[in-house]
Amino acid sequence: MYEKDGERYFIVDGHIHFWDASPANQANKYGRGFINCFYDYQQNLSPPEYKWPLEKFEKYSEEDLIHDIFEVGYADVAIFQPTYLTDFYTKGFNTTEQNAAVAEKYPGRFILNGSFDPRDGEAGLEPFEALVERYQLKGVKLYTAEWKGKSRGWRLDSPEAYLYLDKCRELGVRNVHLHKGPTIWPLNRDAFDVSDVDDAATDFPELNFIVEHLGLPRLEDFCWIGTQEPNVYGGFSVAMAFLYTRPRYFAQIIGELCYWLDEDRLLFGSDYAIWQPKWLVERFVDFQIPDDMLGEYAPLTPDVKRKILGLNAARLYDLEVPEELNAGAATTAGPAIGSEPVSPA
Amino acid sequence: MTTAQDVLDALAGVRDPELDEPLTDLGFVAEVQVGEGRVDVRLRLPTYFCAPNFAWLMVHDARSAVLALDGVQEAVVKLDDHCASAEINSGVSRSAGFEQTFPGETTGELDELREKFARKAFVARQARVCDVLLRAGQTPDEVVLLRLSDLEPGPDQARCVSLRAELGIDASPGAQAFVAPDGRALDAAGLKRWLRIARLVRLSVEGNAGLCRALLKTRYRIGDPQEVAA
Fold it and tell me: Is A222:A192 a contact under the CB 8 Å cutoff?
């Protein structure tokens, strides 16, 4: 819970990790390259007091996690988004099982998500079902750019992926979080293309598709899909960090999102440990659309911020929100309010 | 005799297809060496995992631009520190296509991808020019009637005209100044719809370029990328 200027906010950090990217767990140069890339994001986009030495960034402790997310990070609940990356890290980068080991020590504080890889084919369905049942999962995190042997990615609209989405529907795994790019199969397509989400969202109206990082760097394609598919949501991880280095850019992003999607379909996420929720929450609550942009974009009210910081995620995951913190919650996601269909660029 | 400056000038004509800016402005040119009939160029990108297809295009286009210089018989362009450096450097240096560079991982060459992003770039370039006019008080009804010859000459206007020519869109002075990505004419209502999306595309392209510049700086611990490249 976060409180400022008499307003109270229920906080769900919709995107956190507890990874091990230490040299001992790096399987190859790709594992090193991957964590270095994350590290540059932290170094470039964080206020100085929130930058870590590389060694800590590669492997931080459970105490760090609890401290940063809950003790100082204001989160009431945080969602573990697993990222297996077993081709890059010997024991995986952060798997559902590893996350579960932490989550079970702090009842009610974490939501565990699972994952599947359609390239496992039919043989993977049974283990996936077992994972869902074991941890009572309501969501999955998918990484379409994950490498597997010679393959550099997969598409959500492939028949193999549909097998698993069918299984999700059957098991009540309603929330499908997606991270797009930077590689894909086939490699000649735009790796960040989100059109496969468009087709899957149409074909699986019972599922919610949360596009992480707002589809960045394809904000325009993501917004386009969001106007047409009421079950497509945007996860704010990465984009939230622009609050510090590029607040005007952030204003434009959130202004466009509220126009094309509306504020009921946007979820806060820190992408911890890349960024720490404390400063993101504080700066977001303090943030306002600059005066000279108010002609174009609607101001951000405390109700809008409450939805993005926690109430929207609480709705997707059936979380109980204390009555006094539930002000302004929407009962269902509103319709898209973007303009009539015309082809995006 | 070709000079390093000649090479940089040639590389200034190569754009990142996604960010729509010259490699030299983005700081992607790490080093240029000129020898007897031979030029060596090293490129670098903001992350280890930048999309391999765009990376391939930049290495390929850089090599072609350098080879087109008088007196250059051999051009070796190497991409540093990228997850697919080995494949890309080897493929481009033996003039292999994208399919031969990544056998089994692609269903074709990159012409469609290149065109898709050139059209996005065109939308963003037009949005820059259009927004200036609207801010100055012109209405969409007035703007939609403008011809290319009505636009005040300047870098943004010139960028629109040159890209029209590349995309096969009428670039003559009498052509409508603002058109749909495929070159179709717009009416006033169409222009308003187009503009709403065009601003979003512009935000995306320019926002991504900003992030890439920043990440490159962090990755290579450099000051202003534009100074380093020259």
Answer: no
